[in-house]
Amino acid sequence: MTAAPGEGVGATFEVEVGPVAHGGHCVARHQGRVVFVRHALPGERVRVQITDTGHDRFWRGDAVEVLDPDPDRVTPPCPVAGPGGCGGCDLQHAAPAAQRRLKAAVLAEQLTRLGGLDVDRLVEAAVWSGTVDALPDPPGAPGEGLGWRTRVHYRADAEGRPAMLAHRSHELVPLPAEGCRIAVPELARPPHAPAEGVRPSTGPAVWGVGAPDGRIVEEVGGGRFGLAAAGFWQVHPAAAALLQRTVVTALDPQPGESALDLYCGVGLFAAGLLAAGCDPVAGVEASRAAVDDARANLAAAAGADQAPAVRLVAGRVDRALGRRGGPLDRRWDLVVLDPPRSGAGRAVVEQVVARRPRAVGYVACDPAALGRDLATFARLGYRLAGLRAFDLFPMTQHLEAVATLVRD
Ligand SMILES: C[S@@+](CC[C@H](N)C(=O)[O-])C[C@H]1O[C@@H](n2cnc3c(N)ncnc32)[C@H](O)[C@@H]1O
Fold first, then answer.
1. Which residue, judged by its Cα, is nearest atom 5 of ligand 1?
2. 389 and 383 in contact (C-beta within 8 Å)?
3. Which InterPro entries has this protein been placed in (predicted)?
């Protein structure tokens, strides 16, 4: 559907804002058209300014004036969090508890629509609380969803000043004087621009251009994980420990059970399963550098005496699981899946189910991919036995979920 005259990018009109949707926006309708509205809350009456008419089925817009505000609306703590500003935060205009309610609504909608699940019944059966839970504020942080981000990426504008990307755009928004409000204090302003920074749980912040330089050590409980500063690690300081604890508790490993950690990074979940007495433990990870780090981290975690068998495979999960007669071609009691945003996908879910695990722990950062993969698990005889969801990314649309699946 093309834009009518006077209704292209930049046009404004009033709308009644409908429900929140996956993607950090709410859904509204204007003259029969769907409009995805950012910076709005469900039930508000707002003036929308259209930012994108490039799709047949919907337009995008920003709420540039709020005519009838929701009681949960707050003034965004960051001066560049609003329309046309930094694209990093989607929900600064909502109180933190309201942000989590919006995320829970998105998760419920994706589980219903893509997962084919009856969310009311899940909640009734205590499979899911229906909530997205807050994490503790990092020590010294101002709280209220600020001061938690331990990985940052600043661009440079034409004058060499630090800047951030606008939403769905290559346009640069200058970093305000107070710096990035969601970053930990050491990363709120870069020493130069462009710059990428990391603040590990041990040691000072490290910066680089293109990628943060050198190596870091992250601590989780008693465990230590060495990795490249530019390597994958959870961004909220409380996230890695929380996810490891949640997955291990959900799987309830028994000593001597075999456990497979897929998309294992530098070995976070494999270490938790080793500590719980699993033997053997195997991990699969596409990044060769991360596999080398996982090998060292897990050797240290396993200890020297009567060390359990640990096997790490570098490569894509679908290829590693597809290798007939290979080390992973056997039954595994427990499987952890922690894929990137695109999710595990049908082929990997089938490969996991073929190993007849007693339980699967699925760590998901995209509720749509999770919903789709849960539907595949259900078709193959695995049902959702538990679901926890966490606000690992306050102020943004993102959430993290840990699903437990068991054989029916
Ligand atoms: C969300 S991270 C999880 C890492 C680790 N579980 C952790 O908690 O630190 C996803 C990991 O999957 C890896 N990855 C992405 N696609 C992959 C694939 N097709 N096969 C294997 N690993 C993959 C990435 O390199 C990354 O380390």
1. 265
2. no
3. MeTrfase_TrmA_CS, NA-bd_OB-fold, SAM-dependent_MTases_sf, TRAM_dom, U5_MeTrfase_fam
